[in-house]
Each structure stands twice: as C-alpha cells, then as structure tokens.
Amino acid sequence: MSWAFLRDLLSGVNKYSTGIGRIWVAVVFMFRLLVYVAAAENIWKHEHDEFECNIKQPGCENVCFDHFFPVSHIRLWALQLIMVSTPSLLVVFHVAYRKNREKQHNQKLYKNPGKIDGGLLCTYLISLILKTGLEIVFLVLFYKLYNGFKIPRLVKCAIKPCPNTVDCYISKPTEKMIFLYFLVATSCLCIVLNLAELSYLVFKYSIKYYLKRHVKKQQ
Amino acid sequence: MDWGALHTILGGVNKHSTSIGKIWLTVLFIFRIMILVVAAEKVWGDEQDDFVCNTLQPGCRNVCYDHFFPISHIRLWALQLIFVSTPALLVAMHVAYRRHEKKRQFRKGDQKCDFKDIEEIRKQRFRIEGSLWWTYTGSIFFRLIFEAVFMYAFYFMYDGFRMPRLMKCNAWPCPNTVDCFVSRPTEKTVFTIFMIAVSSICILLNVAELCYLLTKFFLRRSKKTGNSKQQPNHENKEETKQNEMNELISDSCQNTVIGFSS
3-class DSSP state for residue A168? Predict the structure, then answer.
C-alpha cells in the first residue's frame, strides 16, 4: 500500500470527470503527489534528529520539539492529499451502483451509466463541495497550528524539564517554508479549479433545465 | 507515485511527438531523471549530517546550513524536472480530447469518420497540424522558459555552479566568524556541472524542435497559397456559369407564377 494506490484510484475517477476535473487530477498528480514524494518527504525526513537546543538537559529537546510540532507539516500534507482525493470515490461508487442495477434488472436503465446527469450530477456536485471544504479546512489548520505559514529559525522553549528559557534551532527552515508556500499555492489552485467546475456544472444544467421547461410550455 | 508514473504519462505523448521530441524525452529520462534518482540523491543524502562547523555552539550549524542552502540542489532539480515535464501533459490532454471527439463521431455513425472500430481510433497517431500544432508549439515554448528560469535561479542562488569546500559563517548564534565545511564538494560540483550540461542540451533540442515546427508550418502555408493562386480563374468561370443558371431559373419561375396567377 503506497501512493501508487491513490494514483490508481484517481485514474479511475478521471474517466467520469469533466474537462476541468481532469485538469484537477493532473494538478494533484504532478504538482502535489509527485512533489511530495520526490522532494518534500526528504526535507522533513530527519527533522527530529536535526532539531537542536542549546542545552544538555536530557529530555528538553524532545519536549520542545513535541510542543512546537504537534503534527509534523509533512504528515498534515499527506493527510490533506488523502482526504482531498477521497470524495471523488463517491462518483465512482455511484457509477458502479448504476451499472449493478442495470445488471440486476437485465435491462438498459440508463443511456450511459457514466454520463453526469440526474442523481450522478448531485453526487458529483457533493464531491466537489466536499473537496473544496476539506482543502479549506486543512489550510486553516496549517495556519492555526503554525501561526501563519512561517517557519522560524529559532524558537524559545521554557517547558519542564528545560531549566530556563532555552534556544532551539529548527533545521532547514527556509527550504521548508518554500515548500510550504508551494503546498498552499497548489491547494489554492485546486480550490479555484473545484469552484470553476462547480459553477460550470450548475450553469450548464440550469440552462438545460430552463430550456426543457420552455420547450414544454410552448408545447 | 514516483518518477515511474511520470514515465507512463509521458510515454503516451511520445507517440505523437516529432523525432526531436522523442530524443528530448529519452535524454530527459535517461540522463536527468535516472541520474537524479540513482546517483545524485545519494551524493546529497547526508548533506546536513556531514555539514560540519568549527564550533561547539548548539544551533550554529543549523543556522549556517540554512543560510548557505536555502533550497537544496537536489530539490531544485526535482522541481525543475517536474515543471519541465508538465507542458507535455497539455499535448496529452489535447490528443485525448481529439480521440474523444472521434469516438463520439464514430458512435453517432457519422459518414465522415472512416475508422472501422474503436480500437483503430485508440491506436491512431495524430499528425501535428491545426490546433494540435499550436498546443505542441506552446508546450515547447513553456518548456524552454521553465528550463531557462530554473538554470538562472540556480546560478543566482549559488553564485555559479561550483560547490566550495569551505564557507565562512557569522549568523547568530555563531559567536564569531566560523568555518563550515561542506561534505563531498568535488563530487557535488561534478554532478552539478553534469546536470547543467544536460539541461543545456535539452534547451538546444527544444530550440531545434521549435525551428523545425516553424519551418514546416511556413512551408505548408506557402504550398497552400501556391495551390490557391492557380485555382481562382477556374472558380471565377464556374461562378459566372452558376450565376447565369440562377438567373434562368428565377426568370422561368417568375414566368410560371405570373402564368398561374393569370
């Protein structure tokens, strides 16, 4: 079980997406997943070992590290990627349910089980809203946990067993900050894509609906 | 998800590329991505552990390392490779869109579509003309820009492409100016020069491909205008004949209508 599993899942979703949905999948693969695996993971690999405090008191470094990094950036990043990709599964499940129904009744109930209309449209819209919501939740979480998207070089720590206020130095703060900004930028891009897709679908189907009603009235 | 997945995605684009594009893709995978993964990552693997400063002051080493390496070479290269590969996705999306349209035509039973079955559509290789030409040329242009930007960023951040053995650091909390020693400077310099050289080769290949596509475009255009110049006389004669026929028909219609009414 690894990121390849997520990649295969998302490739399955690609089949039933709109054009903007496919761009979203491409952005998630190339700019988030690939950057995470190829670059970001290695920066945070030894963050605990390289976290250094100006003190010899045993336990002080551990306690300070735990205080300043309750959940590491890289783990939050991984969770965000998984959570944000999961709502797309709702669409896959709905299409599978439709195909199953057709098999059970042994008739063609839908013109095309993969076409976005009726119930599948609602599922698709819900998945888009969930994706956007989760992106925003994680961005807010990052902001609240780490006081903005900054990573300072030096943090002052005065928790027991540290005897007084102690200087602690974070490793590679600049590099971590660059990748954090990259993460925020790609999240925002994905939010914009999701909102664009949402407006496009709502607009398209309301026009279709009003045209149908108009034609019915004329008849 | 790793470089292998990127290989699968870009491999699909390979079918619709020019020969120079295929060479570019081979150079990218063998001389850049493979070298990065197999060799360069190991050279930079212990970069912070073996970065040693001549001081016992805790924190001085961390701060000096961060000051001299705001973003590590290996991460810059990974980002460069990702950004440079991305424009090829535009071409892949365009090809997929065209295939989708052809499949739709085929399903509707359009007579214009001359494929026997869907498998043929899937395996078809599209020629680089029309809107696909613009997408393809645009993607090469963006590739060039990304390569140039990253090479400049590299040069700007590290003051050239050499890795020094010794760096002098006096950032706080280092007490005075402190000597810091980089691990494996020569090996890192060798790999840096190698990656820069291969980037330059890729830039040259992209420029060559761009020139080739532009030349083809202008040649095709001049052929078309050459052909259309021969035709106008023919067309004029046909048009006047058609005009005469139309007048005859309209005259006879009027006569019949008048005849009917009276």
Answer: strand
